[in-house]
């Protein structure tokens, strides 16, 4: 059995984080939507979001393609959210879900569920696939509220995915858009 050092886990985790950032970029590019541009070239983001930061080994990381992202120093798993406020553009939830999963190679949807979240219809999806040949799992929640599209993701190596999934559940529970 091959022994993986924590250094190789972190290096691989960095690769996954970069791929998840690419996932957000692909979402924006593939949507064909025109973003609201503010001075400085940044898209409009939701400003009234309230949430509890993930606990435990999750530390904030810079991910320019998300509003906020955290990575676990223990597992390498990442948790992030993206808001895109584009009142003139109407994207449906299935489109947002599909665009978010498009960064995975050989993707397979394990579970999808439509339910109410933050007072709005949402789609929760659990999918497996590969990123740079590494088996990964991704949980995502997409919903729309107050003219904004929201995407929350929790992702990691398939073998480590469930180890800190409870942090994603707690984050979803605390995330509020008034």
Describe the 3D structure.
The protein is an alpha+beta fold and 178 residues long. The model is unreliable at 1-15 and 20-42 (pLDDT under 50). The protein is globular and about 35 Å long. It has a 7-stranded antiparallel beta sheet, with helices on both faces. A hairpin with a 5-residue loop joins β2 (68-72) and β3. α1 (6-30) crosses α2. The chain has 3 helices and 7 strands, in the order αβββαββββα. 32% of the residues are buried.
Summary of the model, kept short:
With about 180 residues, the protein is of the alpha+beta class. It is built from 3 helices and 7 strands; from the N terminus they run αβββαββββα.
Following the backbone from N to C, one meets helices and strands in this order, namely HEEEHEEEEH
Low-confidence stretches: 1-15, 20-42
Overall mean pLDDT stands at: 80
Task: Write down the overall geometry.
Answer: globular
Structural class: alpha+beta
What's the topology here?
Layout: H1 6-30, E1 58-61, E2 68-72, E3 78-85, H2 93-101, E4 105-117, E5 120-131, E6 134-145, E7 148-157, H3 165-174
Antiparallel strand pairs: 1-2, 2-3, 3-7, 4-5, 5-6, 6-7
Descriptive tags:
single chain, 178 residues, alpha+beta, 3 helices, 25% helix, disordered N terminus
């Amino acid at each position: 059995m091959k022994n993986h050092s924590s250094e190789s886990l972190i290096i691989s985790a960095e690769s996954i984080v970069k791929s998840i950032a690419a996932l957000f970029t692909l979402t924006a590019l593939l949507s064909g939507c025109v973003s609201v541009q503010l001075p400085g070239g940044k898209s409009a983001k939701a400003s009234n979001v309230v949430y509890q930061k993930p606990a435990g080994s999750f530390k904030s990381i810079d991910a320019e393609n998300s509003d906020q992202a955290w990575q676990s120093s223990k597992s390498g798993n990442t948790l992030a959210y993206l808001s895109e406020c584009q009142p003139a553009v109407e994207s449906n939830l299935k489109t947002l879900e599909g665009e978010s999963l498009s960064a995975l190679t050989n993707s397979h949807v394990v579970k999808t569920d439509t339910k109410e979240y933050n007072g709005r219809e949402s789609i929760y999806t659990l999918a497996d696939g590969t990123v740079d040949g590494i088996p990964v799992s991704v949980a995502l929640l997409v919903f729309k509220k107050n003219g904004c599209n929201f995407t929350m993701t929790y992702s990691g190596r398939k073998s480590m995915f469930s180890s800190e999934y409870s942090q994603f559940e707690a984050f979803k529970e605390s995330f509020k858009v008034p």
